[in-house]
Amino acid sequence: MPPTSVVREVPVDAQDADAALSREWLVTNGLGGYASASVAGLATRKYHGLLVAALPNPIGRTVMLNHLVEDLVLPDGRQVQLSGEERTGRRLSLPGMAHLRAFRLEAGLPVWRFEVEGAVLEKRVLMPHRQNTTVLLYRLLQGPPGWRLALRPALHFRHHESELSDELQPQYRFTPGEVHEVRCDGAPAVLRLRLHGPEGDFMPQPQELAELHYRVEADRGYRHEGRLWSPGVLGVALLPGATAALVASTEEALVMDALSPDEAWAAELERRARLLRMAPPAAREGAAAELVLAADQFVIVPAGRRRDAARALAEGDEIRSVIAGYHWFTDWGRDTMISLEGLTLATGRTHEAASILRTFAQYVRDGLLPNMFPDGSNDGLYHTADATLWFFHALDRYHQATGDDALLARLLPTMVDIAHHHLRGTRFGIGVDQADGLLRQGAPGHQLTWMDAKCDGWVVTPRRGKAVEINALWFNALSVLCRWLRHLGDETAAHSWAGHAQRARESFNRRFWFEAGGYLHDVVDGPEGDSAECRPNQIFAVSLPHPVLDPSRWDAVLQVVQERLLTPVGLRSLAPGSAHYAPTYFGTLRERDAAYHQGTVWGWLIGPWMDAWRKRHPGDTAGARAQLEGLIAHLGEFGVGSVAEIFDAEAPYTPRGCIAQAWSVAELLRHLVTLRPGGPCPAQC
User: Fold this and answer.
1) CA-CA distances (angstroms) from residue 282 to 9, 292, 298, 675, 683?
2) Please, what sign has the CA dihedral across residues 92, 95, 98, 99?
3) pLDDT for 35-77, tens place per residue?
4) Residue 118 region, left (φ>0) first, then alpha (ψ -120 to 50), else beta?
5) Cβ-based burial of 552 (10 A; exposed 0-12, middle 13-18, buried ≥19)
6) How would you classify the pairing of strands 519-520 and 646-647?
């Protein structure tokens, strides 16, 4: 199907500015860089910008072009502003909303339609793949000659995590030319601007835009005021049916000029068409097709880690990773392995799945996969007990989908070494308890499971001891390791590991069952004994391809999870009625961290829930699809065309956190693709 038929229309109401401000668009470049703002055209976060470039380490992602003040100049000289701003004291000015008639995603790319006194103007934004370049295209669809566009770029070169209140650089230098350049002392890169279109000009009018208010940062308890600097105004004529464009880039002029704006748009549409053609037929239309394009935003070549890239290229390979979420996450081991099936296997991108697996195999240290790579760093942090176990699951799903014995044989020694490290014990107290064969974890000051909130040294949910999902994953890892060894002809080693798996399974069913509640303990043998908190982690004992829980107890667990944790947009992280239950995720960082895994709904958990539910209802396609409708409806809000990281625990389940989260997109897409009549249950393929 042509990518332009994948359209997400978003309602626009000039009287409802809050709706346009709460919806955000995102365009990415395959390197970790992006462009993003609100649908209303206003930056509401410190992370928003029209060019956030992914620069080599140790620089990291850097805001290079923050905002454009856009004015449509009428033939009689009057100006109509299409953008807006918010000043200190929440003084909001959105003149463009009065003229905004439509907003949509076309092939996943944002398109605005403005109408001003009989003129119809369309605006589009794209980033050429693997370039730190943003192209803004303007086309006058209707109107008499004599219209012009006036664009005032506004900027504050800074790392995208830096405070808005950081001082502007003391001296910006603007050099006009065919390609305008903006430099300043100490800046990590040069911003280049090229205007395309007839009668282009530049009027130097340097000024500061002060007292700018960023409402989302204010709501999140951060510093929320800042200033921007502008060199002046770029002007261009608008001819009916012709394209005018502004290209902003940190690339050399030769690279940014390789394609004209129209050619760049056509090339990006063709790239997206290929993504849809690569995907299975079930993913080429409707919400699944939207999610195929959303999934592409997360699969990246890490721009900063040039040493790793050079090593991979020397082997005839190319490094790949997964951005966990936009705007602030980098690549995380856990998120990458959980997301791999939905982002790559469900979309037909098996070659990139293999590259991701090979890339992360190179990062294994002491039997552990990195938890995450800090922005701007070449070195991973290894404080995770589950990312490595999810690595087994991801490789297993890849091998089941492709039959690639060569990659399995290449990675098998690494996987065996990982298992040995877990048997002997490794960092952070991660190791098998020889008394019962279960995996324990925990070290003071560290958050090692996916429930990893930490604020000012406070680990909110430490879960030290033997966590339920860690041991479900451990049993699954041992089981797939046995299967791999047998498949590749090492029956002796397989038999040995099968003994460890059987012991873990017997101990799990004896130790984790909470008879009084009819569900599973969340943690056993913790510092304060066994935890009977009702959490979603127990679902993995049923959902994984090799479920550790005895089938006689599946229905009880499913019933408790359905009654106490299931919502239309995922699973609550803690059941209502618990002492620490938090119904909303809002406020300062400490307040939000206190709620992060204490009731807050996580969209990605719809995936394991559906795996478990579909094992008990294998033929009920309609019932399965109905349980995904809440997340499908969510595609039109928050991060338009994508799935949020988290939601409030109570209706109306307000989306929170990252506007686009890899594992949320991946798990929804994975099930949509397998929900064709007679399609396989994804966890049993």
Assistant:
1) 22, 11, 21, 8, 18
2) negative
3) 999 999 999 999 999 999 999 988 999 999 999 999 999 999 9
4) left
5) exposed
6) unpaired
Task: Check: CB of residue 518 under 8 Å from CB of residue 560.
Answer: yes
CA-CA distance, 154 to 581, in Å (whole number)?
Answer: 43
Contacts of 498 (CB under 8 A, 6+ apart): 478, 482
Element (H, E) at 610: helix 606-616
Q: Can you read off the two tokens belonging to residue 108?
A: 């996943």
DSSP class of 168: P
Which residues, listed in sequence order, are joined to residue 326 by a DSSP beta bridge?
A: 660
Q: What angle do CA 526, 527, 531 make, to 5 degrees?
A: 45
pLDDT tens-digit map of 91-115: 999 999 999 999 999 999 999 999 9
CA 642 to chain centre: 9
What tokens appear for 56 in the block? 């080599």
Determine phi and psi for 21, rounding to 5 degrees.
-80, -25
Residues 6+ apart with CB under 8 A from 526: 442, 463, 464, 465, 466
- Does 677 score more than 70 pLDDT? no
* Order of all β-strands in the sheet with 523-526: 466-467, 523-526, 529-531
* DSSP conformation letters of 289-325: HHHHHHHHTTEE--TT-HHHHHHHHHTT----EEB-E
In sequence order, what DSSP letters do the residues of 641-661 get, joined into one string? TS--SEE-SSTT--EES-SEE
Among positive and negative, which fits the CA dihedral 379, 384, 389, 395? negative
